[in-house]
Amino acid sequence: MGWFFPRLHARDSQQTLDSWLIKSSLVNINGTWVLTRNTKKYSFRCPDLKELRKLASYVLDPLDFKQHHGKLLSILFADVVEGLLSVLVQFCDPLYHCFTFLDYQLAPTLEEYAHLLGIPVSNKVPFNGLEEIPISHIIAEALHLKKFEIEVHWVKKGGLFGLPSDFLIKEATAFAQTGSVDAFEAIFVFLIYGLNLFPNIDGFVDVKTIRVFLIGNPVPTLFGDMYFSLHLRNSKGGGTIVCCVPLLYKWFISHLP
Q1: Which segments constitute the DUF7745 domain (predicted)?
Q2: Closest CA to 226 of 118, 124, 137, 117
Q3: In sequence order, what are the residues at sequence separation of 6 or more whose Cβ sits closer than 8 angstroms to the Cβ of residue 132?
Q4: Rounded CA gap, 212 and 209, in Å?
Q5: N or C: which end of the chain has fewer CB within 10 A?
Q6: Is residue 211 part of a domain?
Q7: Do the domain assignments include residue 29?
Q8: What CA–CA distance (Å, rounded) separates 25 from 22?
Q9: CB 246: neighbour CB atoms within 10 A?
């Protein structure tokens, strides 16, 4: 059984990349890389980010945004080659919690994730799932909204409470058009957390993500999500991997020859 691998763009020489792929049990058949080992069928939670990316046009000073919010725009606009990740996860080694290739191993680190995200790991206790559901006025204050607006739009979807993204996009757009930069960026970042960093339910920012956002220490949670989902899907023999796919992708291509 083969796994079809799309042609990659090597940052150095094509010869170096081809050599790496061949060592990883891949062969080139008529211009297509095929994995010559037993494979598992994986897919990835890749939400539709079209409307969220449109909001980025309201970011007037990307450098200032980066200074305050890290490399969130880079993650938002990452052009993920899903076929590349599909091959990567075939080499997931649950025993050693890494990716084991023919002659070496690769494992993401917390420091690498922090660097790629541009957000340092803080001393705050990261999300652990035991936090209380945040009350409406705290969410409203963080998003520069009124308490009743949060309460009216607070709904349950997929077994979790949260806020619909269409409401949030509308509010972010209104703030941007009136020049309320702080309010716009607060909701925009909130949406990136809910739809891009921690994708769960389409068009919805669930309460778990809201807790992570309010804590303000997302890197450990992103790191844990990645390892947990990879381990779970590997133990099940395949399925949908739910984590920040663009971040995992950026980590992997940073190690390509």
Answers
A1: 52-257
A2: 117
A3: none
A4: 5
A5: N
A6: yes
A7: no
A8: 5
A9: 22
Closest CA to 233 of 56, 39, 65: 39
Distance CA 137, CA 135 (A): 6
In this predicted structure, the answer to whether residue 25 has a pLDDT above a threshold of 70 is no
10 Å CB burial of residue 84 (0-12, 13-18, 19+) is: middle
Give CA 17 to chain center in angstroms. Answer: 26
Closest CA to 83 of 4, 179, 188: 4
Give the residue numbers spanning the domain of 125. Answer: 3-19+39-253
pLDDT tens digits, 121-146 = 999 888 888 888 899 999 999 999 99
CA 56-45-59 angle, to 5 degrees, is: 5
Q: What is the pLDDT of residues 79-107, one digit of tens each?
A: 998 888 888 888 888 888 888 887 888 89
- Domains identified in the chain, total number: 1
Residues shown for the chain: 257
Q: How far is CA 174 from CA 24, 184, 195, in A?
A: 50, 8, 20
Cβ-contact 18, 56 below 8 angstroms: no
Asked whether residue 34 is assigned to any structural domain, the reply reads no
Domain assignment present for residue 226? The answer is: yes
107: helix, coil or strand? coil
